[in-house]
Amino acid sequence: MKEHERNVRILSSIISYCEQIDTTVRHFGKEYKIFLNNPIYHNAVSLCVILN
To answer: Domain extents for the chain?
Structure first.
């Protein structure tokens, strides 16, 4: 795989994870307290970051 193709794949993955996080935030809200106290919210966002 060429370096350019690899970079495009990585950036596409990052964009996808960001979109998933945005969807999750819109679902649960932007309150940090909700994020900290809701394990589903916390895991959904954290796993997107970890998988990247």
So the answer is: 3-51
Residues 52, 44: Cα–Cα separation, whole Å: 13
Q: Which two tokens stand for residue 43?
A: 């895991």
Tens of pLDDT, residue by residue over 2-52, are 999 999 999 998 899 889 999 999 999 999 999 999 999 988 888 877 765
Q: How far apart are CA 12 and CA 17, in angstroms?
A: 9
Q: CA-to-CA distance for 1 and 9, rounded, in angstroms?
A: 10
Distance CA 36, CA 29 (A): 12
> How far, in Å, CA of 24 to CA of 44, rounded?
7
